[in-house]
Structure formats: C-alpha cells, structure tokens
Amino acid sequence: MNARSVTHGLLAVAVLALAGAAPPSQAADFSANSRFPDNPESELGLYRFDLRIRQNIDSSEGIGAITYYVNSADNSMMIPASGLGAWWPGGEFAQGRLEFVIRQADGDFMACGQHQDLGPACLLLGDNFGPAFGWLRHMTWHRQFLDSIAETPQALGEGPGGGARGVRGRGQDAYLQMWFDPGTSTVATQMPFLGLGVGVMKDFRVRSNRTVRRLRVEGMDMDGGDLVMDLLELVPARASQDTSMYRFVTAFTTQGVEEAVQLGQQGLSLQAQARGIQEALDACPKGRDGRDCRERERARMKALEDQFRQQALDYGRRHGLPVDD
Length: 325
What we know:
Strands 1, 2, 3, 4, 5, 6, 7, 8, 9, 10, 11, 12, 13 and 14 form a 14-stranded mixed β-sheet that branches. α3 runs antiparallel to α4. A hairpin with a 3-residue loop joins β6 (109-115) and β7. With 325 residues, this protein is an alpha+beta fold. It starts with a helix and ends in a 7-residue tail after the last helix. The chain contains four helices and 14 strands.
C-alpha cells in the first residue's frame, strides 16, 4: 500500500451525503449544537479536535484501517501520519516525512511534515483532492441525496450486522449504500456530516442525528467495483495540532499551479527570444569591428536571463519555496 492508495481511498470515501430514520421522540437533540470551539479559518493557528474516528477501507488496492480526529463544531479533521496505518507506514517519502494532514472546515487541505530542503513545512493543497470532498460543505447536495432515497430501488449489498439498517440513494457521482445504527447519535452538531464517509449524519427528513456504520460507493473503486467503508470506533477524544512552526507552501494550490503554468509559458517565450539574440550575436562581425555588436547582444541576453530568474524567484517567494538570492 502506498500514498496513492490512501489518497484514492480518502477521495472516494467522501463523495456522499447520507440518510437514515429515527424515532420522533429524539427530535429535540437535532437542534443542539456542539459546544467545542471552531478551528481557525486561517491555515496558521492551533487546531483542536474532540472526536476520534477509526474506520476500515476495503478497496481493490488493499484493506486497512485509518484513524483521525474531527472537530464536532465545524467538521475540520486531522489525520496523523500514524493514523494512516498500513496505507502509508511511517509517513516516509523520498524527501522527508509526513506528520499530519488537516482538512479545514472550508474543505481545503494541507499536508505537513519535515522536508529535507524546507524543514518543517505544510504543503497547501487547496481543495485539490477533487470535488469528491465538495459535498461536505454543500447542504444542497446533502438534501438531494436524502430526497432521492424514496425513488431509488433499494438493492442493497451485505450490511455490517448488529441491527444496522441500510438505505440506497443517488450521490453526485455514484449510487450510495449506507447503513446506520438504530437510535440517535449522542454527538451534538449542526454540521450535515462528521467524518469521511462514516461517522455522524444529520437526517433532515426526521430531524435526527444518525451514526453511519457502513458506506458502500457503487462502482467507485479503481477496478470498477464498490468501495466499502466501515466505522470501527467513534469516541470522544481530544487532540490538537499547532501549525505556527511550519513554513506554508502554496505551489500546489490551484492558483500556484496556474501561476507555474504561466511561468512556464513565459519561459518558452523567453527561450525563443534568447535564440534570436544568439543568432544576432553569432552574426556580429569578427574582431574589433564586431565588439560593439557583441556587447549589445550579450547585454540583451543577460537582461533576458535576469528577467526570467527574477520571475522564478518571485514565484518561489510568493509560494513558500526555498529561494537563493
């Protein structure tokens, strides 16, 4: 198992909005909100979490558990490298070591750790994990799933047992099957969903919070089969992570990539100009007669090289990359 495997698993688990049923007598719990403080809107700050979730991922690339922490007030999450288990043992990669991944409340991601060139650094990914995570902050999509259950054929696969009840509905990209525990979750939140595919869901049809025990995403595995998530543990647990000691690298956000592409295009244009200058330099007369010509063309070449170097340095500084003036 490798980093690509866990990325695939995490992307695929979050394509959803989920559903269930609950006794009307529990409806009062639905209006309760978490008393835990929200996490910072900025990347820089102290992130705190009050729930721990452990879930199993069953895919064509392997079977294994991940453990992560959730803030019940805003559904921000933190996955420590140790929580990736067999999907990414030790969090090691060629240039360093992953320490944790944070999903902010707005859906943006950052992966933080130690890099051989950068030192302590957080790679800001924006929402580049793809639209699969988008439903987590789109109430409309959540309600659309709930509304689709009544008109969707309830052809369900195997459930997790233990009295869990399954439903089937349409997600944004696939049909979803979900099993939820009997009764009402004790977790207070106003978030539509807490967790990555399994966890706590608000069922607006019957005004109850439900514990999602199993999720099956039809046809979303890499081999075309179903991806299955199972909730192994959902418990109160405190965790925190301070990002203030980390350098922030934005080169791989949508804006950073767009700027890199523009810089590359400018580089190609400057290369064409450099070839023209070199041709003019080669055409200068030999000897003393061509001295002024050569000085002029060499000055043009140096100015062109300095221009591109300055653009590259500016890009690096803006996006937190190490630059050598």
